TrEMBL record:
Pfam families: MIOX. The gene is Miox. GO terms for biological process: inositol catabolic process. Its main location: cytoplasm. Keywords: Cytoplasm, Iron, Metal-binding, Oxidoreductase. This is Inositol oxygenase.
């Protein structure tokens, strides 16, 4: 049995029915968001994703799965565009 009851967000977002989009579209959506954890940054949030993935690729060229994790690590922040708190 789970340690905690499911969050209401599981029912709301679990079916992935809010909006269909590709990963590239989700990355582009991040650029519409002012990240509360870094509000003074002068470059788009998607740039941070690419920068992270590239840094990981340089440090770990043999771990392609890790490059992908670096690219995707902030995608959950798009939920702020659907009314979720950051």
């Amino acid at each position: 049995p789970p340690l905690h009851p499911p969050l209401p967000q599981c029912a709301q977002y679990g079916p992935c029915s809010q909006r269909r989009m590709s990963v590239m579209e989700a990355l582009a959506l991040l650029d519409e968001l002012v990240d509360e954890s870094d509000p003074d940054v002068d470059f788009p949030n998607s740039f941070h994703a690419y920068q992270t993935a590239e840094g990981i690729r340089r440090a770990h060229p043999d771990k392609d799965w890790f490059h992908l994790v670096g690219l995707l690590h902030d995608l959950g922040k798009v939920l702020a565009l659907f009314g979720e708190p950051q």
